[in-house]
Design brief:
CATH architecture: Beta Barrel
Order of helices and strands: HHEEEEEHEEHHEEEHEEEE
Radius of gyration: 40 Å
Structural class: alpha+beta
Distance between the termini: 106 Å
Number of helices: 6
Helix content: 10-25%
Shape: elongated
Number of domains: 1
CATH topology: Porin
CATH superfamily: monomeric porin ompg
Number of strands: 14
């Protein structure tokens, strides 16, 4: 009987075991905690899982992704090429959006400030430039034996300070201060030219007309105050006056009016200079800035005999052009190259200047680089010369 009962139990267990295992596999696991995370009846609260040490190099999981505990990249959030970090000047889609000074943009071209004339594009900026000048040419000087041309060579320094504010989109104000000092470097130059200093001021409002949207052409009108102060010390002029006076009277004082008039000459002029400017981008990588101005200026010159000043009205006209090539659109780097032309006339004196510059622009907040120019000047009454100017420029836009 016992042997028969044991056999039945074994058969029952053998038949029920597969069904029990299958039910255990398909049934949800029963947590040792209740729905709120509390321990169930008769159970001790389980210890919280140990926190994984923080890895400072681990990237946070992207939305919808999970962190791989064994790797550094969140699962399901691999960086795609389109999401890779882009340099401020790279990426055709973000080039214009990366520019922090949008008022320098016209079309998709980031315009620099020209070196030879004031930019017709309204911006808020502060900058300065410092450089050198080398001049060679001839100067006609009056001597005791009549007029004589002297060959001259002079070197000097150039300083420029510029500032501008754009309180409204249609109105801005700019200020330019320039100072030059030159001195002869050989005997003839020291005698005929001596030393020259020039100070120039330009200050006034600039108005922007509505932009032609079809071509992105911008027109501006300016009405700036122009002031010039010049001083020249010419030793040969003073010596000639001394010789003439000593020949007439047998003696001469260095304080004599004619001696002072021949030794030191001063000129100044001032007036309002109206101008018109054009800003025109072409394609994405190029643009041109144009400016033309005219003024009738009240001038004063010291008399050669040293008895005072003589007043006159002089005419001044100028035209400038600056072509710029934006490296952001050419080789994905924020360099800009410029080629500039400036021509001006003041009565009988005419100057023509050609120059080129190379600047770093970053994302539009700075202009840092160098500029070199060559000037040819002619004045049938006084002199003709050729001058080379080089300068370093730094401008901050805000």
């Amino acid at each position: 009987m016992n042997r028969w009962l044991l056999s039945c139990v074994c058969l029952f267990v053998a038949a029920a075991a597969p069904a029990f295992v299958s039910a255990q596999e398909s049934a949800p696991a029963v947590p040792p905690f209740g729905p709120s995370g509390a321990a169930g009846p008769g159970q001790k609260p389980a210890a919280a899982p140990a926190a994984r040490p923080h890895d400072p190099y681990e990237k946070p999981a992207a939305p919808g992704g999970s962190v791989d505990p064994y790797g550094k990249t969140p699962l399901g959030s691999e960086v795609k090429p389109s999401q890779a970090p882009v340099a401020p000047w790279q990426g055709a889609k973000t080039l214009d959006e990366q520019v922090t000074r949008q008022n320098r943009l016209s079309g998709s071209h980031l315009f620099p400030s020209p070196a030879l004339f004031r930019s017709p594009l309204l911006t808020s900026r502060f900058g300065f430039s410092q450089g050198f000048a080398v001049i060679s040419g001839t100067r006609v000087v009056e001597t005791v034996d009549g007029t004589k041309p002297y060959a001259l060579t002079a070197v000097g320094a150039h300083e420029n300070l510029s500032a501008a504010a754009r309180p409204w989109n249609w109105l801005g104000f700019d200020l330019d201060l320039a100072f030059d000092a030159l001195a002869g470097v050989n005997v003839e130059s020291a005698l005929a030219m001596g030393g020259i200093t020039n100070f120039d001021l330009s200050l006034g409002p600039v108005f922007t007309l509505p932009t032609i949207k079809a071509t992105n052409t911008t027109f501006t009108l300016g009405a700036r105050l122009a002031v010039h102060l010049g001083l020249q010390v010419s030793p040969i002029g003073g010596l000639n006056a001394i010789i003439r006076k000593s020949g007439e009277t047998g003696k001469v004082s260095a304080e004599a009016a004619e001696v002072k008039g021949q030794l030191v000459s001063a000129v100044s002029y001032a007036g309002i200079r109206p101008s018109i400017g054009i800003v025109q981008p072409f394609f994405k990588w190029g643009g041109i800035q144009l400016e033309a101005g005219f003024a009738r200026l009240s001038a004063k010159r010291s008399k050669a005999d040293g008895t005072g000043d003589e007043s006159e009205t002089v005419n001044s006209a100028s035209v400038g052009a600056a072509l710029s090539l934006d490296g952001r659109h050419i080789f994905n780097f924020p360099l800009v190259a410029t080629i500039e032309y400036f021509g001006d006339s003041l009565n009988t004196e005419k100057k023509t200047t050609l120059g080129a510059g190379l600047y770093y622009q970053g994302t539009g907040e700075i202009q840092l680089g160098a500029f070199v120019a060559d000037t040819i000047a002619k004045d049938p009454e006084i002199e003709s010369y050729n001058g080379v100017v080089g300068q370093m420029t730094m401008i901050y836009y805000f």
